[in-house]
């Protein structure tokens, strides 16, 4: 599968992770279902999979809310040409967040910092993004010329839309379609809420993370179509970008299969529109 099926080259993978358990634990990897992820995943392993699937550049995204991870990722991006950008983490609620973002950009590889992400999906407050201290942090991210990646659950989408409305100068990137309940086949209220977010011009969405939201026992590309079609119609190709979510995707599908699924979900589009999803949007948004 992969490049052998899609025939694509120059793909940008806008969302992947790496980790080394000898450096730090990934404490979110718990239980038997996630057990296959409890090993090291390196850029070297990713590169073999990605290049075989026609991927030329990637965006490395934070995994844990640990300050030391982002400098490590920046140094990794500086040392490996495959990684074109880093979405890191910093505490948005700290009063000196603007200074911290400036410090990160002065580190080795700091030029690769293009975005910030926080695990909002783990916050008990569904309106966390609207807190005054968080809003100050988001304003600092915008001032720094960075984007903000949203990793949220469906019930948090209304707050995402409100935050995007309050910060028109900041680009908000929705990871994994906002994690719709693909496994149950339900689409509401997720579809309505994701359309409301997409109605704001400073929002973008990643066509990523779908296979792990589906039922692992019975998933198939056909079951993903209604969700893919929803974001295609809502955001349009110019605000949609492909992401593998490797290695999390490997719980269900190989890297090549994920690329092929994205190709199937966009097969009704013309070649220019597909080019946007597979490289153009990410190139613009993350300044590759």
UniProtKB/TrEMBL annotation:
Superkingdom of this protein's organism: Bacteria
InterPro entries, per the entry: Amidohydro-rel, Metal_Hydrolase, Metallo-dep_Lactonases
UniProt-recorded name of the protein: Amidohydrolase family protein
Protein family membership: Belongs to the metallo-dependent hydrolases superfamily.
Lineage, top ranks: Bacteria, Bacillati, Actinomycetota, Actinomycetes, Kitasatosporales
Any one Gene Ontology molecular-function term assigned to this protein's record: hydrolase activity
UniProt domain Amidohydrolase-related: residue ranges: 12-288
């Amino acid at each position: 599968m992969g490049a052998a099926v899609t025939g694509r080259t120059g793909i940008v993978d806008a969302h992947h992770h790496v980790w080394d358990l000898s450096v730090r634990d990934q404490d979110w990897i718990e239980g038997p279902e996630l057990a296959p992820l409890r090993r090291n995943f390196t850029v070297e392993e990713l590169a073999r999979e990605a290049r075989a699937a026609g991927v030329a550049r990637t965006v490395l995204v934070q995994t844990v809310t640990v300050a030391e991870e982002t400098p490590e990722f920046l140094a990794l991006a500086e040392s490996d040409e495959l990684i074109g950008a880093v979405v890191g983490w910093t505490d948005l609620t700290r009063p000196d967040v603007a200074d911290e973002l400036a410090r990160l950009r002065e580190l080795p590889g700091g030029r690769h910092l293009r975005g910030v992400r926080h695990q909002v999906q783990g916050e008990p407050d569904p309106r966390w993004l609207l807190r005054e201290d968080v809003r100050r942090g988001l304003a600092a991210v915008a001032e720094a010329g960075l984007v903000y990646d949203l990793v949220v659950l469906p019930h948090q989408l209304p707050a995402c839309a409100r935050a995007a409305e309050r910060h028109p100068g900041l680009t908000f990137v929705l990871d994994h379609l906002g994690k719709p309940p693909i496994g149950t086949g339900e689409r509401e209220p997720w579809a309505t809420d994701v359309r409301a977010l997409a109605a704001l011009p400073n929002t973008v969405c990643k066509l990523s993370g779908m296979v792990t939201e589906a039922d692992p026992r019975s998933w198939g590309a056909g079951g993903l179509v209604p969700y893919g079609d929803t974001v295609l119609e809502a955001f349009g190709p110019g605000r949609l970008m492909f992401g593998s979510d490797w290695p999390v995707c490997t719980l269900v599908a190989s890297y090549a299969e994920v690329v092929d699924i994205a190709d199937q979900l966009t097969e009704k589009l013309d070649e220019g529109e597909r080019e946007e999803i597979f490289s153009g949007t990410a190139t613009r948004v993350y300044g590759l």
